[in-house]
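explain this chain.
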Amino acid sequence: MNILLTSAGRRTYLVEYFKQALGNSGEVHASNSVMSPALVAADRYVLTPIIYSEEYIPFLLEYCKENDIKLLVSLFDIDLPVLARHKNEFKEIGTLVAVSDKDVIDCCNDKYSMSLKLWKSGIRCPECAISISDALLKIDAMSMHYPLIIKPRYGMGSISINKVYDKKQLKAVYDICKKNIEDSYLRYESEHCIKEAVLIQECAEGNEYGMDVINDFDGRYINTIVRRKVSMRAGETDEAVILGAEDPEYKILTELGRSISEAFSHIGNMDVDVIMSMDNMRPYVIDMNARFGGGYPFSHLAGANLPKAYIEMAEKGTASIELCSAKAGVHGYKDIVMSGYKD
């Protein structure tokens, strides 16, 4: 089986995980629109047109046909909705695209729609608004309270996330966030709602957790892996510990994972960030990404092997629970390594 990881960027570890899972039974290919570290780690790599180009999907289709790609996995949020719209075209040439359906991807990428879907499904998330006037009305009605988090509605990579403590800061930071969106690649996702492209969200207080909510490729629940975040850096988990049944939060969060699975019926891994209020043990979902997240390496370090599970699901339709489970108590740290290539 040959596998293609699109928009691989700096996810060198995922390239290595897939290569180890595949062994000698195929090649791991990686693609990106510019040269990046993960490409060097792959068995083969290719530079693609940019995601928003009309040539992007035809290029990938041709590449998958020429290289007998059987499984395609995307590693970047902006890539997901584009691939989701064209899954059937890849299926026709024998390539399985391990990406959730378009409605799921759109909901996860749009943090406001995500919050509405979560509340409708009975899952707690922080109160939010997409205009200053709406936020001020909610503050006056005491359904929203300072401090507030100001962030892009279609955000990723922790771009322009700030905390504000009063009305003056709210208005100033809102305008800065909107300008940052217009000046970054986030403008592509936000262009249809640029006047409502900034999300104003109540700041949940408590301990932060990350979860891998794992479904099979038919959207059926397999398992939830829970990790308590110890430290963060540039929006990604830098240090974390895997939780187990002996931890008081574990049952609450695994039940939350199952609820998310049932509400979204996503495909493969859903990376979920949660704040848990420690006074009443109530979890609040603060973010969801329908892909491998930056916290997955901690699960892998603790014995999970989702790349191998993806291969099993592609070949057999299901994966063993052992591949989707992690050992409790494993404490992990991220490191910085160098890679390079000769022109």
